[in-house]
Amino acid sequence: MMPTPLFGTSSSGQFSCATAAHHTLRDLRTKRKGQPVFVVGHVLARKGQEGSFEVFNDRLAIVKFSDGGAIGYDPRELLLPAEIDDKGIAYFEIRPCRQCEQLFPLTAEDCEAAEEPTDCPECRHS
Predict the structure, then answer these.
(1) Which strand (E) or helix (H) includes residue 104?
(2) Nearest to 103 by CA among 48, 60, 36
(3) d(CA 118, CA 51)
(4) Reduced to 3 states, what is the DSSP secondary structure of residue 79?
(5) Which of 22, 94, 105, 111 has the highest CB neighbour count under 10 A?
(6) Cα–Cα distances in Å, from 20 out to 8, 31, 51, 70, 90?
(7) Strand partners, 37
(8) How far apart (Å, rounded) are the C-alpha atoms in residues 87 and 9?
(9) Do 103 and 40 contact (CB within 8 A), yes or no?
(10) What's CA 61's distance to the chain center, in Å?
């Protein structure tokens, strides 16, 4: 019997992509170590970079970068990829919202749509 994952993390299963209900790491019920994320957070030197979720430290999600650096972020500051190919490479399609100017990830369906959304999910539903 496998132990229950600590702090909502798991080392098994698949990485997640952006969906209509899941856009950020915070939205995921179970966070998998190595989950690809796009940083929109508070550290300007890392803003706009891709990294991978490692573990939670208190309420911060620790993100590791390809250069070995690691920084803690609010999970709301970490966007999910639009898709992950069969080799495990994550593709991020990040757009600014026309109304509120916040960055948001497109879903795979958004990318394939005849017209991609110009508003973030929050502005679309308000």
Answers:
(1) strand 103-105
(2) 48
(3) 25
(4) strand
(5) 105
(6) 21, 17, 22, 29, 18
(7) 51
(8) 22
(9) yes
(10) 11
The amino acid sitting at 117 is P
Counting beta carbons within 10 angstroms of the beta carbon of residue 104, is it exposed (0 to 12), middle (13 to 18) or buried (19 or more)?
Answer: buried
Say how far apart CA 98 and CA 120 lie, in whole Å: 8
| Residue 98 in tokens | 């026309």
pLDDT digits (tens, 9 = 90+) for 9-40: 444 468 999 999 999 999 998 899 999 999 99
Query: How many other C-beta atoms are found inside a 10 Å radius of the C-beta of residue 24?
Result: 20
What is residue 13's predicted lDDT score, i.e. its pLDDT?
A: 61
**SS3 of residue 110 by DSSP:** helix
Residue 68, token pair as written in the block: 């070995």
